[in-house]
Structure formats: structure tokens, C-alpha cells
């Protein structure tokens, strides 16, 4: 037995107060909870990928800067040569690197609800995390409240997920620009869902010296690789590179991500299918009595269930073999809300059927 006083004397109080990020067990269930791409690779592509893997020298450390992969990422995303790219073991790691580089008492700002890791990592590092509620119903930014929070707290970093997770919407672009020009610190536009969004701030980087754009290959279809990238001015990336662990992108990820980005046609096709299915699921949810559905520019859809029924409905859907995400326990604007990731057409129809059944009076 470990003595509690040992734990309490060694670890920061912020760490003691945190709960670990929990991931639901999806064994045996149709998995529509984590924004994964549901499609597998074609057999031919798997074969040639395995051929490429044979060249990996696992006895050697990987290229610490993953130069070839970084270049492929720059080319594929048309990143102007004036900007640098920092690769992370998932964009989660990039958020952590950014936050670890801040002054000890720095403030970090993001709207609420948004991606939970901004808050989780800020708190684990003892930073002052500030959140500003989004507007009810539209989930857009409350611009006056955001500007007031910037003026009061002078955040070193503002995170804006675009589109936002878990709400799925794109914030008003003019509001974002005002936030970027008002902020004296950095603004990170987290474009985790860029493949599905048709909107981006990548082209705006050139306009604002405090702007960074962050992306990941996870939602595109490579969640298992753990690869994210942050694009920004070389002077900013240079500092962050000092915090990054030397070999943070392993050789299998470097080689596989490079391979996948070169064979992007298959992912482009999968993305098109997912976007078409998003429209289908959105319409079906919209036609359901008791359900309010919210527009999405991502590969998931947020919807609201009748009052105080979300947890029951979530459980009834799971009982029928489909795992989605219950956001209702987070409360606030997410009370009564569930989130479904867009899967294959047959998976989506199983979800719709399960939801219909869950909504029937018992
Ligand atoms: C999923 C997600 C991430 C994390 O991506 P990883 O690269 O898998 O760590 C970051 N930001 C947002 C908004 C996300 O939804």
C-alpha cells in the first residue's frame, strides 16, 4: 500500500485533483464514439505499404526532425515556405509542448464546450485555464465575452477548434480574426477536422504573426499512427522545438504517414463518402421527433435528446450494440446532448434504428 502522504507530498495539487482521460471499452460494439474513419485500406495498398515497412531500420533511432515527412506535409498542405512545421505524437502532444513552454503563471483561454485536452493539460501543468461559454443554440463564439476575457486575463495562448469538437460547427471567421488581432499572445486554430470542413485558417497565417494552425492525421483515417502538426512562424516553432523530445515521431509513423500522404486518393475518396453520409445522418436525425440536430463541418454530429433522457437513450443504443458518446454528464450547454461519429452507411443505419427504438415510449 502506498502511503497517501507520500503521494500528496510528491505530486502537484493540480495533478491530484485531475481525473485520467477515460476511453470507453468498445469491445463487440459498433464504434461510433471517437471520430475514427471506419474504412480499411484496399488490399493492394496494404501490400505496398508492407513493402515500404521492410525498409525500416528498427535498430536505429528515427530521423529526429522527420525531414522527409515534414516536407511531404508541407507540399500536401501547400504550406508557404516562410513557415515551419512542428510534428507531434498526435496533436495532443503539440498542445502539451505549447503549454509546457509558457511562463509558470500563464493563462490559457478556450471557449466552452471545446476539446477537453486544452483544459486537462493546462491544469496538469498548473496553468490558469479560463473558459468562456459559447452561445447557446448556435454554439458560436460569444465575441464580446471572449474579448473581455482576453482583456482581463491576457492569455498566453488561445485555443480555437475549427470546426469545434464536440459541437461540430465552424465559428464565425470574422470573430476569430478579431480575437487574433486583439490577443497579445498566441492563437492556435486547431483544424483536427480539416478534411471534412472545407474551411481553414492556413492561408491566413501570413496575415498574423501570432497565429498558428494545428492539424492531425487522426480523423482522416490514421488515428493509430499518432501524428499531428503545428504550422507557424519559424521564430515560434524554434522555441517549441526545444521542448519537443528528440525522437517523438517513431520510424513506423514517419514511414507510414509519408506513404499515406502520397497515396492520398484513397483517403480523399473515403472523406467524400463520410461527408455524404454526414448529410444523410443529419437529415434522418432532423426528421426524428424529440431530436434537435446541430449542423456539422466535421465527421461527427451533435444532437440533443428530450430533457433528462440522454443517459437512458445512450444506454439503450449501446444495449443494441452501438457505442456513441454521451456528453450530457458534462452539463452546461451539453446537457441532454449525444454525439455520433459518422461510420459506414450500414453502421449509421444501425445507429439510426437503435436511436428510433430508444425514443419509443417504454
Ligand atoms: C481529436 C482531436 C484532437 C487530437 O488529435 P490527435 O492528433 O489524435 O491527438 C485535437 N483537437 C481536436 C479538436 C480534436 O477533436
Question: What features would you describe in this structure?
Answer:
With 362 residues, the protein is an alpha/beta fold. It has two domains: 134 residues, Aspartate Aminotransferase, domain 1 (Alpha-Beta Complex), CATH 3.90.1150.10; 205 residues, Aspartate Aminotransferase, domain 2 (3-Layer(aba) Sandwich), CATH 3.40.640.10. 42% of the residues lie in helices and 15% in strands. It contains 15 helices and 13 strands. The strands form three sheets. It has a seven-stranded mixed sheet with strand order 2-8-7-6-5-3-4, sandwiched between helices. It has a four-stranded antiparallel sheet with strand order 9-10-13-12. It has a two-stranded parallel ribbon with strand order 1-11. Helix 14 crosses helix 15. The protein starts with a helix and ends with a helix. The mean pLDDT is 96. Pyridoxal-5'-phosphate (PLP) binds next to helix 5. The site of pyridoxal-5'-phosphate has 13 residues, from helix 5.
